[in-house]
Specification:
Elements: H1 9-12, H2 17-38, E1 40-41, H3 43-47, H4 49-58, E2 65-68, H5 75-83, H6 118-131, E3 138-143, H7 150-159, E4 166-172, H8 183-193, H9 196-209, H10 215-224, H11 226-233, H12 238-242, E5 245-251, H13 255-266, E6 271-277, H14 285-289, E7 296-297, H15 316-330, E8 334-338, H16 348-353, E9 358-360, H17 365-377, E10 381-387, H18 388-391, H19 395-403, E11 410-414, H20 431-436, E12 442-444, H21 449-462, E13 467-470, E14 493-496, E15 500-505, H22 509-522, E16 528-531, E17 534-536, H23 540-549, E18 550-560, H24 565-576, E19 581-587, H25 597-604, H26 608-628, H27 632-635, E20 640-642, E21 649-651
Parallel strand pairs: 2-3, 3-4, 4-6, 5-6, 8-9, 8-10, 10-11, 11-13, 12-13, 15-16, 15-18, 18-19
Antiparallel strand pairs: 1-7, 12-17, 14-16, 20-21
Helix pairs in contact: 4-13, 6-7, 9-10, 15-21, 17-19, 22-26
Length: 652
C-alpha cells in the first residue's frame, strides 16, 4: 500500500499522478475503517483528501503554515504528516486529537476547534512573518459555512491591506454541519455557476497574446478593465471588491488543477483567495447521501452506515426537541433560533413542524443572540438552542442586548459539562461561571428528563426575563422521578433526609450524588440529598435548612470551580454558618483534554468513588479540628500526605 510509505511531505512529492489518485483512495478507505471504530468527523474529512494532498505538493510544510478553520477536516493532514499510526487512538483518552494541536505536531500551525477563525489567525501569523523578516507561505483553509461567521469578514476586511503574500483557500462544499443558509450561500452558488468565466478568460488571453506586436498590449488593456468584466460575469465579486484577489473556482478533487492554482497564488504580493469546490462525504455513499448525519459520527457499521450502538432511551436533546414542539403547538409566539445546528440541537423537528417560526442564522452565534433579543422586544418568545462551548461567543450580546433590557429570551444550552472526544474547545464547563456573572440572568440545571420538560415549560410559559437551561450530552437520566416537585422560581428540592452529611448537587451531578448517597447508605451512613436546581438565584432557604441540621455540606457541579455554584454556596456558608465544613466538588481551573467522559470524570475526581474518598478525608479533617483543635495535617501518617486536588496518595 502506498499509504504505508507516507511519513511526510517528501514522500507525497515522489508520487506520480496515478499514484496520487491511488493514495487518495487509500486514505478514504483508511478514514472510513478507523472512524467506524473510534467515531469522529467523517464527511468533512472525506471531502478534503485531494485538497490536502495538493497543499502538501504545492507548499513546503511545516515551514509553510496551513491553518485549518475549525480543524475537524484535518485528518488527512495528520496522516500525511506522519501520524497515521496513532489513528487507533483518535479522540480517545490520551490519544490523537480530532483537531489541530500545536503541542501534538510541528505541522499543526495553530490550535482550532471553533469556526470562522482561520483567516484572522493566518493574517496574524503572516504579519508576524513580515515584521520578523521571515519567508514562508501562510495558507488559511476556511469552509463556505464558516464564511457566515462575522469574524471571517472582519479578517477579510483587514487582509485587503496586506502588502505581502497571504493565501486563503475557500473549501466550498455547500455545507457547514447542516446545509448552508443565507446570502453568502446564494452568492457562492452564483460563483459556482460562473465557472466558465475563468475558462473564457484563459482562452481570450491566449488568443490575444498570439497576435504579433499588439497582442501583449491588448491583454494589458483588457486586464485594466477586468473588474468590469467580472462584475458582468460574476455578480458582486465580493472578494475582489474587498481588495482580495479571487482565483477559481477549481475542482477540489483535481490535484493537478489545485496545485497549479496554489502556485499561482503563491506568486502574488497581497492577499488572494482560491475557491475550491469539494463534495462532502466523497467516496462513501452513505456520507455522500447524508453529509450532515456523517459530519460527526459515533462508531458505525461500514456496510450500512448505521450506528453500532443503538439508542435505547432518549437523550436530553430529544427531550428538549419534543417538549419545545409540544409547547409551540399552543403558543404561537414561540420561535426557535439556531446557529447552523438544527440537527445537533434537536431543532430539526421544530423546523419541520413550524418552518415559519424557525430561524437558522448560520455560524453566527452573536447574531443569533441579538436577533433573538429583537424578537423578544417585538413580543415573541425566542428559544436559542446552542451548545455550551459555542454560546461563549455570544457573551457580550447576552449581557448587552438581552440582560440589560431584561428581555425574555430562553437559552437552551446543550452539551453542558464534559462532552468527551472533541476535547478542550468543546467541553461545556464554563457556562455556569459566565452566565451567573450577568445581572438579570436566571440559570437552571435539570436533574433528569422530567425536570428538563418542566424547566422548559417554566421558562417559556411562566418566566418573563432572560433564562438559561443547561443540560448534558447523551442519554437523559431517568432516575429520581418519584422525588420530582413543581418548578418554583429560585427553589431547589430536598430529595431525601439524612443526618450529619448533606449533598447539594445541580444538573448532571444530582445522579452522581444519588449514587454517592446509596453507596454511603450501604456502609451505614445516612446522608441528605438535595437538588439545587437553580444555579442563579441560589436557594438560600434550602441552604439554611441543610446548614441547621448538618455539620458537613458537599456541593457538586459539572463546571469549573471558579465562578460556579459551589463558591456561591461557600460564600453564603462562610457568612452565615462558619461552623459547617463545606467541600466543593467541581472541575479544576484547566482545559480538559479529549477522551471518554467516564474516564475524564475519574481522572478529574468527579466520579462517585473519587468524591467519596475526598469526602472521607475532608470530613475526617473537620472532625479532628472540631473535636481536638489539632491541625489535621499533623495527625496524618508521616509517610503519606493526601493531595487535596485529586484525592490520590503521593509518597512524601
Amino acid at each position: 500500500m502506498l499509504l504505508e510509505q507516507i511519513e511526510g511531505p517528501s514522500d507525497v512529492k515522489k508520487l506520480d499522478a496515478e499514484q496520487l489518485r491511488q493514495l487518495a483512495e487509500e486514505i478514504r478507505t483508511f478514514l472510513i475503517e478507523k472512524i467506524s471504530v473510534t467515531g469522529g468527523h467523517l464527511a468533512s474529512n472525506l471531502g478534503v483528501v485531494e485538497l490536502t494532498i495538493a497543499l502538501y505538493l504545492a507548499f513546503d510544510l511545516p515551514k509553510d503554515k496551513v491553518i485549518w478553520d475549525v480543524g475537524h477536516q484535518s485528518y488527512t493532514h495528520k496522516i500525511l504528516s506522519g501520524r497515521r499510526e496513532f489513528f487507533d487512538g483518535l479522540r480517545q483518552f490520551g490519544g490523537l486529537s480530532g483537531f489541530p494541536k500545536r503541542k501534538e505536531s510541528p505541522y499543526d500551525a495553530f490550535d482550532t476547534g471553533h469556526s470562522s477563525t482561520s483567516i484572522s489567525a493566518g493574517l496574524g501569523i503572516a504579519q508576524g512573518r513580515d515584521l520578523l523578516g521571515e519567508d514562508y507561505a501562510v495558507i488559511s483553509v476556511i469552509g463556505d459555512g464558516a464564511l457566515t461567521g462575522g469574524m471571517a469578514f472582519e479578517a477579510l476586511n483587514n487582509a485587503a491591506r496586506m502588502k505581502q503574500n497571504f493565501i486563503i483557500v475557500l473549501n466550498d462544499n455547500n455545507m457547514s454541519i447542516s446545509e448552508n443558509v443565507g446570502g453568502m450561500s446564494r452568492y457562492l452558488n452564483t460563483i459556482r455557476s460562473a465557472a466558465g468565466y475563468n475558462r473564457l478568460k484563459k482562452q481570450v488571453s491566449g488568443a490575444l497574446e498570439s497576435i504579433p506586436v499588439i497582442g501583449d498590449r491588448l491583454v494589458s488593456q483588457i486586464c485594466r478593465t477586468k473588474n468590469s468584466i467580472k462584475q458582468l460575469m460574476i455578480p458582486g465579486m465580493l472578494f475582489e471588491n474587498m481588495g482580495v484577489t479571487y482565483l477559481g473556482p477549481v475542482d477540489g478533487h483535481d490535484v493537478s488543477g489545485m496545485v497549479k492554482l496554489f502556485r499561482e497564488a503563491r506568486k502574488m504580493d497581497h492577499a488572494v483567495l482560491v475557491h475550491v469546490l469539494t463534495k462532502k462525504g466523497k467516496g462513501y455513499a452513505p456520507a455522500e447521501k447524508q453529509p450532515a448525519r456523517f459530519h460527526g459520527v459515533e462508531p458505525f457499521d461500514i456496510a450500512t452506515g448505521q450506528p453500532k450502538n443503538k439508542k435505547i432511551y432518549p437523550g436530553y436533546t430529544d427531550v428538549f426537541s419534543s417538549e419545545l414542539c409540544r409547547l409551540a403547538e399552543s403558543n404561537p409566539r414561540i420561535v426557535a433560533v439556531t446557529a447552523a445546528m438544527p440537527d445537533g440541537t434537536g431543532l430539526k423537528r421544530f423546523q419541520k413542524q413550524y418552518p415559519e417560526r424557525f430561524f437558522d442564522v448560520g455560524i453566527a452565534e452573536q447574531h443569533a443572540v441579538t436577533s433573538a433579543a429583537g424578537m423578544a422586544a417585538a413580543g415573541l418568545k425566542p428559544v436559542v438552542a446552542v451548545y455550551s462551548s459555542f454560546l461563549q461567543r455570544g457573551y457580550d450580546q447576552i449581557l448587552h442586548d438581552v440582560c440589560i433590557q431584561n428581555l425574555p429570551v430562553v437559552f437552551a444550552i446543550d452539551r453542558a459539562g464534559l462532552v468527551g472526544s472533541d476535547g478542550e474547545t468543546h467541553q461545556g464547563i464554563f457556562d455556569l461561571s459566565y452566565l451567573t456573572s450577568i445581572p438579570n440572568m436566571t440559570v437552571l440545571a435539570p436533574k433528569n428528563l422530567w425536570e428538563l420538560r418542566r424547566d422548559l415549560e417554566f421558562a417559556i410559559e411562566e418566566y418573563d426575563g432572560p433564562i438559561a437551561i443547561r443540560y448534558p450530552r447523551g442519554q437523559a437520566y431517568r432516575g429520581l422521578k418519584e422525588s420530582d416537585s413543581p418548578v418554583v422560581y429560585g427553589k431547589g428540592e430536598l430529595i431525601s433526609q439524612g443526618r450529619e452529611i448533606a449533598l447539594l448537587a445541580v444538573g448532571s451531578m444530582v445522579s452522581t450524588a444519588e449514587h454517592i448517597r446509596d453507596k454511603l447508605r450501604a456502609e451505614g451512613w445516612e446522608c441528605t440529598l438535595a437538588n439545587g436546581r437553580f444555579i442563579k438565584p441560589v436557594d438560600t432557604d434550602l441552604i439554611d435548612t441543610l446548614a441547621s441540621s448538618h455539620s458537613f455540606l458537599v456541593t457538586l457541579e459539572e463546571n469549573v470551580l471558579q465562578g460556579g455554584f459551589g463558591l456561591q454556596v461557600t460564600a453564603y456558608m462562610n457568612e452565615h454558618y462558619p461552623q459547617v465544613k463545606v467541600l466543593n466538588i467541581a472541575l479544576p481551573d484547566a482545559y480538559v483534554e479529549h477522551g471518554n467522559v467516564s474516564l475524564l470524570r475519574e481522572s478529574l475526581g468527579i466520579d462517585s468513588d473519587s468524591i467519596i474518598r475526598r469526602m472521607g478525608e475532608t470530613y475526617l479533617d473537620a472532625k479532628i479540628t472540631q473535636e481536638t483543635g489539632a491541625d489535621p495535617e499533623l495527625e496524618m501518617s508521616s509517610d503519606t500526605r493526601i493531595a487535596p486536588d485529586n484525592g490520590k496518595e503521593d509518597p512524601v
